[in-house]
Design brief:
Distance between the termini: 34 Å
Order of helices and strands: HHHHHHHHHHHHHHHH
Radius of gyration: 23 Å
Largest sheet: none
Length: about 450
């Protein structure tokens, strides 16, 4: 591990990015259940809670691809403080307003800020990581999200249940505190983008069409797997409080259950590299999605709190695989010069799932019961397991670093099949340069 090349700035930037992401995600993880509790206190039913949760992802649907285009041809770092400011403002104003439409609107601003931060951060990791470091660095990057998801629900549960069950007042307090927590992320964003990496990006004179990006084998599968995994995490965060209300589980206990799920996700990402070496990418993706689907459906069962805690812990471990591996899958499969746009399309898929899944969950919960959405999520995750069986697009580097990087840490693409065949033919050719292999004349020219 120590003998492999590292991109310019070392890994200090990654540590600062993980810290900033932990605070930003912690604020969002505090705010999401607090928004649900405050909506319930303002008279919302299950359907209204689902609509408000869906609006969080609505605004990002329209700006994700333009932001990705901008990042492909510019810097990543400016999106990070912008995202922090939007998250803080959305959290604070969600706690100050007293109408459900206004709460939905500011929840959308919060989601827009989260999108800005994540596009900038993921593009930064892709750009400043050598190929053999991508699985590891994306895994470490998502640890920041898991840390936020670990602490945020505990803090929200403690604040919301700490003052006599006055949900309206205590949930507003949790939202204001989450705004302050997010603002702390600004302290870790100094010198986070290395200037040398701006010169190593592929220069393109024209935009790669979205259809071309989505047509690259591996990109759609990565997007759909990510959508299924994030929808499961999102519904757990937004709807476990509703399940807790119906099963008489205290908000503090619900917060602990959500944090237990996040802790298991952290544990998964800490051992991601050994798991990849042991099982391989395809088997790990497929197995984790399949088990997560079965366990997510198990949340719908009327089990006791200890059994529910075990289910959520194992579920959290399985859900920890999908996000970092889907990021690497999309980055490797995307055309050169369009990787940030491909990541933005992946986030668009995530937000589409976050719009559709809570809305559908709200309708199903209102018609059938609050446990039914988890069965729907289980079916989606089992479908994602089937996508994992199809494998990736173009061959990328293995987790053990079989693909070399150049001195700048940029990606060294594998030679096309035609070039490989041509090289083999030239090695078998006579001194006069005429190939002795009768099949060599059917190989494409190597181009130089």
């Amino acid at each position: 591990m120590t003998g492999r090349p590292r991109p310019g700035p070392g890994r200090g930037w990654l540590l600062r990015l993980v810290i900033a992401f932990a605070f930003a995600q912690g604020a969002v993880s505090m705010a999401r259940p607090a928004v649900s509790y405050r909506a319930l206190a303002l008279g919302a039913d299950e359907t209204a809670v689902g609509v408000i949760a869906g609006v969080y992802a609505l605004l990002p649907l329209f700006v994700a691809v333009p932001l990705g285009r901008r990042t492909d041809h510019g810097r990543c770092a400016p999106l990070l403080p912008l995202g922090v400011l939007l998250i803080s403002g959305g959290c604070a104003l969600s706690g100050l307003v007293s109408s459900l439409p206004a709460m939905a609107a500011w929840s959308g601003v919060m989601g827009l800020g989260h999108l800005c931060f994540v596009i900038g951060a993921q593009s930064l990791v892709a750009r400043q990581s050598a190929p053999h470091e991508q699985d590891r660095n994306f895994g470490h990057f998502t640890i920041g999200a898991s840390l936020g998801q670990l602490v945020g629900p505990i803090a929200a549960g403690a604040l919301i249940s700490g003052q006599g069950g006055a949900l309206g007042r205590t949930s507003a307090l949790a939202l204001l505190v989450s705004a302050g927590v997010c603002a702390v992320a600004l302290t870790s964003l100094w010198r986070i983008e290395h200037r040398r990496t701006t010169g190593t990006r592929p220069r393109t004179d024209s935009k790669v069409p979205v259809r071309t990006i989505l047509g690259a084998r591996g990109v759609p599968a990565g997007i759909l797997i990510s959508m299924a995994v994030l929808s499961a995490t999102d519904i757990l965060t937004a709807y476990l409080p509703v399940v807790g209300e119906h099963r008489s589980i205290a908000p503090a206990t619900v917060g602990l259950l959500l944090s237990l799920r996040a802790a298991a996700t952290i544990a998964c990402r800490l051992v991601m590299t050994p798991l990849l070496r042991l099982l391989g990418r395809r088997a790990l993706l497929t197995t984790s999605c399949l088990l997560a689907g079965l366990l997510c459906a198990g949340v719908a069962l009327p089990v006791s709190v200890p059994i529910l805690a075990v289910i959520l812990a194992v579920l959290g471990f399985c859900l920890g695989v999908g996000q970092p591996l889907s990021m690497t899958t999309v980055v490797r499969a995307a055309p050169d010069g369009a990787r940030s746009t491909a990541l933005a399309l992946r986030l668009t898929g995530n937000r589409l799932g976050q719009v559709a899944a809570p809305a559908a969950a709200g309708l199903i919960a209102g018609a059938v019961g609050v446990a039914a959405p988890f069965v729907l999520l289980g079916v989606g995750l089992v479908g994602a397991a089937g996508l994992g069986l199809r494998g990736e697009g173009r061959t990328g580097p293995s987790p053990t670093g079989s693909e070399p990087a150049d001195e700048e840490g940029t990606k060294t693409e594998p030679a096309p099949v035609g070039e490989a065949l041509s090289d083999r033919s030239s090695r078998r050719s006579a001194p006069g340069g005429c190939p002795r292999d009768r099949h060599a004349d059917r190989s494409p020219r190597s181009g130089g």
